[in-house]
């Protein structure tokens, strides 16, 4: 993963230089402004930026993930797809259940490790998802179905319902699934790592 440096009178000039040199749109670049440098004793300061192409980051994630899985003893293939502009890495391995772990904990740990590596390399957060044989996709659909089922019960009984503890990713799925529901609303309660979603009835107007 190559890091390019460009200089301009302003940050905008430096970015334009990067776009011309790399023949890329700005939206496809990760840009980090570096400390100002002086070009000479009496000359004005210029802006220097460090640029990484997003396509290279995408491939670096796959390379690192492949090596990590190999070191852990898994035989795996990785498929990359863009989901709303976010790269999704779907792993197909010789032991998917072990790679996923109980309630997805091993998969979550794997995602954290790769995320920390890429954040260190890039110098900022970079959004991507790691999945195993569409586990997250299926799990998300199941969570949405459960949330809507509980919401119907709450709307009927007018009694709030507490769901099982979930991580932030799962809680966000539940909140999003019911955000436009006219009869119930959701709130997260409790302390990490045992925070959970409570589905509550709305007062009738």
In short:
The protein has 205 residues and is of the alpha+beta class. The chain has 6 helices and 10 strands; from the N terminus they run βαβββαββααβαβαββ. The strands form 3 sheets. Strands 1, 2, 3 and 4 form a 4-stranded antiparallel beta sheet that branches. Strands 5-6-7 form a 3-stranded mixed beta sheet, sandwiched between helices. The chain has a 3-stranded antiparallel beta sheet with strand order 8-10-9.
Sequence-ordered SSE layout with sheet pairings:
Blueprint: E1 4-8, H1 11-22, E2 29-33, E3 37-38, E4 45-53, H2 54-71, E5 76-83, E6 86-93, H3 96-100, H4 105-122, E7 129-132, H5 135-157, E8 161-165, H6 168-178, E9 184-189, E10 196-201
Parallel strand pairs: 6-7
Antiparallel strand pairs: 1-4, 2-4, 3-4, 5-6, 8-10, 9-10
Helix pairs in contact: 5-6
Distinctive features:
205 residues; alpha+beta; four-stranded antiparallel sheet; 10 strands; 42% helix
The major β-sheet equals: 4 strands, antiparallel
Structural class: alpha+beta
- The radius of gyration over CA amounts to 23 Å
Which regions are unreliable across 5 or more consecutive residues at pLDDT < 50? none
Helix percentage range: 40-55%
Mean pLDDT, rounded to whole units? 90
Termini separation comes to 57 Å
Which shape, going by the Cα principal axes? Answer: globular
Oligomeric status of the shown chains? single chain
Strand runs, count: 10
In terms of DSSP E residues, the strand content is 25-35%
The helix tally amounts to: 6
- Element-by-element helix/strand order: EHEEEHEEHHEHEHEE
């Amino acid at each position: 993963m190559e890091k390019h440096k460009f200089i301009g009178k302003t940050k905008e000039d430096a970015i334009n230089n990067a776009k011309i040199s790399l023949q890329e749109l700005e939206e496809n670049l990760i840009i980090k402004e570096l400390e100002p440098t002086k070009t000479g004793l009496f000359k004005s300061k210029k802006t220097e930026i460090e640029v990484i192409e997003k396509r290279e980051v995408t491939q670096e994630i796959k390379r690192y993930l492949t090596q990590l899985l190999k070191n852990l003893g898994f035989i795996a293939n990785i498929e990359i797809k863009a989901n709303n502009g976010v790269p999704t890495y779907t792993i197909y391995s010789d032991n998917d259940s072990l790679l996923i772990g109980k309630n997805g904990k091993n998969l979550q740990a794997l995602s954290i490790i790769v995320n920390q590596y890429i954040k260190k390399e890039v110098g900022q957060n970079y959004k991507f998802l790691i999945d195993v044989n569409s586990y997250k996709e299926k799990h998300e659909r199941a969570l949405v179905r459960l949330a809507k089922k509980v919401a119907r019960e709450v709307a009927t009984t007018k009694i709030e319902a507490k769901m099982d503890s979930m991580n932030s990713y799962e809680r966000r799925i539940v909140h999003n699934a019911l955000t436009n529901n006219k009869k119930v609303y959701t709130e997260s309660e409790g302390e990490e790592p045992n925070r959970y979603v409570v589905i509550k009835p709305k007062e009738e107007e």
